Each structure stands twice: as structure tokens, then as C-alpha cells.
Amino acid sequence: MTDPRQAIAARAARELGDGDVVNLGIGIPTLVVDYLPPGVKVHVHTENGLLGVGPTPNPGEVDPDVINAGKLPVTAIRGSSFFSSADSFAMIRGGHIDVAVLGALQVDQHGRVANWTVPGQTVLGVGGAMDLLTGAKRVIVTMTHMTRDGRPKIVEECTLPLTSSRSVDVVVTELAVFRVVDGRLVLTELAQGLDLETVRRKTAAPFAVDLGLRRDR
């Protein structure tokens, strides 16, 4: 898979388990729905008020009234449910989301996320990420390893505002998978054909290495 965004989404999808209620954030997370593992039943939630998001529609099948939180067209599977944004956030804040898949601008050495910046810059506001970091039982970050100008996104300390003091559980990039264990990043998987020194060179935060560590759901 040559597109790094698609590769990241495909790898993140493998972190999901049967029966999970999963919120997909804006950006790379929205692609995860197209890579759900066969035989695994996942209930995909979008914060603008839909539970039961299906695969991305083909161009001729787009319904402009069925969109996700990023205003991109989605499909609704049979048995899906539509509701208000207030009810949607009640689900999030009430602890009814099993997994949140979020994008990020930076992740620090403790697994804390910065996913927004000041108005007029890359992102205009924090959106629902603050609520998801508080309410979701498990949080997965999906992002490219570097910025467009070649700076690491995994840093010792975030220089952008932290979205929450909570650490995420997993960070998936096109280069590696990190898990947060006891408040520290642990590299648990390298992308195929990649060596550890490449990841070290492109990561600006300290991390441990345990390539045998499995996820704990």
C-alpha cells in the first residue's frame, strides 16, 4: 500500500474488536471504516449524530444529507440510528464509546495529544477531541510520522496546546506502532521493510522498544 494515509488507516483498523462502538475523527480516522477486519462487527459512530457508519460511498451513490463530522459523504448501514449532536455528545461524555480514533498534530513522550492550534493556523478549534479523550474507553491516534516540512510529530514535549492531560493508548503512523505503557511510549511494531534506526531518526521523543508486546484490550 503506497498511500501512507491508507496504510495508517488499515493498520489502525486491526486494533478494533468485535462489538466495539468506535468514533472516527476527522482526517485519516475517517478512512478506517473501509478497512474493518472481516468478520469483526464494529459500530461506527460520528459525533454529528449517526451510529452505523458504513463504507465510503461510490461517486454515484453519494447522499448529501448523510455526512460525517468532517462533512464528507458516508453511508449508513442497515439498522443504523440518527440522532442529535446533543445526544451524540451525551454518548461520548457518558462513557459509551469503546474506542476513539483521532488525528493529531503532535504526540508527546507521555502519549498526550495536541490536535489543534490557534485560529488562522492549521486547525481552527479543538472540536470533539477533548470530549473523546475524556469519555472514550480507549484512544488510538492515527497520523503521519512527519509534518509536510519534515519535522517529527512525535516529540518530547508538545509545542502546541494539549487537548487533554490524558494519555492515548496507541499511536499508529506509516512507520511504526507505539503503545503507551506506564506513561511512556513503547515502540511495538515497525512497518514492513523499515529498520529501527530510521524510526529513531524521525522521532523527537524518547521511547522504549518491545517488538513482542501485544495489545491489551
Characterization of this structure:
This protein has 217 residues and is of the alpha/beta class. Helices cover 15% and strands 25% of the residues. It has 4 helices and 13 strands. The strands form 2 sheets. It has a 10-stranded mixed β-sheet. The longest helix is centred in the N-terminal third of the chain and has 10 residues. The protein is globular and about 45 Å long. The two termini are 27 Å apart. Keywords: Transferase. Belongs to the 3-oxoacid CoA-transferase subunit B family. GO terms for molecular function: succinyl-CoA:3-oxo-acid CoA-transferase activity. It is an enzyme of class 2 (transferase).
Mean pLDDT: 92
Q: Helix content range of the residues, please?
A: 10-25%
- Remind me, CATH topology? Glutaconate Coenzyme A-transferase
3D shape = globular
Strand content: 25-35%
Question: Which strand order does the major sheet show?
Answer: 4-3-2-1-5-8-10-11-12-13
How far from one another are the termini?
27 Å
**CATH class annotation:** Alpha Beta
Q: Work out the helix count.
A: 4
Structural class: alpha/beta
Low-confidence stretches: none
Number of domain modules: 1
CATH superfamily: Glutaconate Coenzyme A-transferase
Order of helices and strands: HEEEEHEEEHEEEEEHE
- Major sheet attributes: 10 strands, mixed
Q: Indicate the CATH architecture.
A: 3-Layer(aba) Sandwich
Tell me the radius of gyration. Answer: 17 Å
In total, the number of strands is: 13
Family: Belongs to the 3-oxoacid CoA-transferase subunit B family.
Organism: Kyrpidia spormannii
Protein name: Acetoacetyl CoA-transferase (Subunit B)
Enzyme class: transferase
